[in-house]
């Protein structure tokens, strides 16, 4: 019997036993994962591992009480004990007025194909070759003196969900990745940098040699950095770190933060938050997207939403519990593992690109800071105050000049969002993506 036929029966049996044991309702989740990973350093194999796992989680409700129990043992005796523990816990925990399953009319009716799984498993030799090409290309860059190693990996997970409200569904996700980290220079003057590529399908991966060469060039270009002078200058976020601003935004519109009143955007629904004309899109159905999903973890339908439309905030990210607390409709953003309750999480999110290239964007900057790496997490989610370590390159008369390190950039996210300008170089790399971004009026602290 295959997981495709076994898991629905297993979940239905768990739910039936939970209700027989006294649960008013229940849902259950099974995740089966396989992963293959390889690591090498200086051309020598350091790791080649294969991992297989299976996990089941059962959530039961008795009135307004809920409990969740998980197990890696899918044997009949272990599952019976799982049901007993879950029901006993649900009788003992405090009430949660917002917990509960979706109503049948809220459930998704169609499960779209989002092409979230590459059916071909790579061989160990495939991963070894990807990592070899990546590291060799990085080490061949003049000025690279050492390697922290190259890695290549693959993983596949099948998720199956069922609930007593009638929902049942499953889908598979896969990922292929390759990356390398190298050092340039000698002694105390060494600098490190990295690069990687991660895709759902192997055929979409960047050429490992291109990834490696880029990592080596980045490390060499960082040699001999200086501290910047302190002052207020335009900050330009390279595209690979620009998505950090989107992540702060997504955290600020998460339903639980809004319900608790702990977000600096809690009173901004329908108001301008980003600069006029900007749009932030959440697209769970993007073909081969790293965060695509055909339904959410509560069985609700997912759909494309413009989180920001013409600069205005249009929605929160809501699961059922936070939607009930706010007296709103859920948005299909629930996500969960086998051992915890659902919570809202975005899918493929991106900020639409602008019209200027990064070079055109910085052409009028007399003095500024081009940020390529962020350090620390100095962000206050309640006030929006922002202060993070950064390194990159100084901008002088519209050009990148010397490398910069040991800098701190500071501002407030409310002001930063309102003064944000996107470049035209959007690439779908991380699942949460932004083009190069320029933010005027921030402070750089250095020497």
Give the gist of this structure:
Residues 230-446 form the Metalloprotease TldD/E C-terminal domain. The chain is α+β, with helices and mostly antiparallel strands and 447 residues long.
Please tell me about this protein's structure:
The structure is a single chain. With 447 residues, this protein is α+β, with helices and mostly antiparallel strands. It folds into 2 domains: 3-219, PmbA/TldD superfamily (PmbA/TldD fold, 2-Layer Sandwich), CATH 3.30.2290.10; 225-447, no CATH class. The chain is 23% helix and 36% strand. The protein contains 9 helices and 19 strands. It has helices at residues 3-20, 76-92, 124-139, 208-221, 239-252, 255-260, 320-326, 358-362, 413-418, and strands at 25-41, 44-62, 65-71, 144-163, 168-184, 191-199, 231-237, 280-282, 305-309, 312-313, 334-335, 343-344, 349-351, 367-375, 385-396, 399-412, 420-422, 432-433, 437-445. A 6-stranded antiparallel beta sheet has the order 3-2-1-4-5-6. The chain has a 5-stranded mixed β-barrel with strand order 7-14-15-16-19. A 5-stranded mixed beta sheet has the order 10-9-8-13-18, with helices on one face. The longest helix has 18 residues, at 3-20. The model has no long low-confidence stretch (mean pLDDT 95). It holds the Pfam family PmbA_TldD_3rd. InterPro entries: Metalloprtase-TldD/E_C, Metalloprtase-TldD/E_cen_dom, Metalloprtase-TldD/E_N, PmbA, TldD/PmbA_N, TldD/PmbA_sf. Residues 26-90 form the Metalloprotease TldD/E N-terminal domain. Residues 230-446 form the Metalloprotease TldD/E C-terminal domain. Belongs to the peptidase U62 family.
